[in-house]
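Bug: token stream looks shifted between consecutive jobs. Job 1:
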Amino acid sequence: GPDNPQSSVSISCTLVNSGSFEWMWKYEGSDVPVDRSEVWIADATRTSILVINELRYTDSGNYTCSAKHTTDNTYYNISTQLNLNVALTAAVNKISAHVNNDS
């Protein structure tokens, strides 16, 4: 549609820690609206990918990926800023975190 600066974006969140994780995505502090048909999340063992198709300018903002280790319940948070403007070209943002838990 005319509101779309680009067709889609995917934001990848990866943890190098071993183990399996439960993933959660927040947008500006609230749950990502997965009830929108254009928004979906693909979870793997150590990676979660948030995909937004048919982007709107209102999708700009701060996205936070949270991972909870399923064994010891340790939480990890990774944030990224998604900026949309008229001149935006196709982009894929990849965020990786190497977290050492010394406990």
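Job 2, same session, no restart:
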Amino acid sequence: MISNMIKNGEIVPSQVTIGLLKAAIEKSGKSKFLVDGFPRNFENNSAWESTMPGVVDTKLVLYFECPEEVLEKRLLNRGTTSGRSDDNLSSIKKRFATFINSTVPVLDYYGQQGKVCKINADRGMDEVYADVKKAVESVV
């Protein structure tokens, strides 16, 4: 189920993702986490907030801004070695549409709380990393 949804650029059901994240968080024994790519829509976020109180407190949302053309090129290049079923042009276009329609409203929600840090990702890795490090250090 998960691999088919990813291939089609769809969002995996919240309870599946949250269950996996919660198990990993509890197993780790750690208190601080960087969760990559979640929540992806309002339903994910509502489920996250209702399922995880006392377990997590979202302090920061990193938003990597980059033109679609650059992202497309990077993902297609990654697809030559990744083995990922969703690193193809059709899936990439679906993922872009899903991001605009579903994820941008979540960014707006956290932006209204002052929790979004926009990172210009259309630069070299060292420059992007420096900005990410600075943003993360501001909340830990």
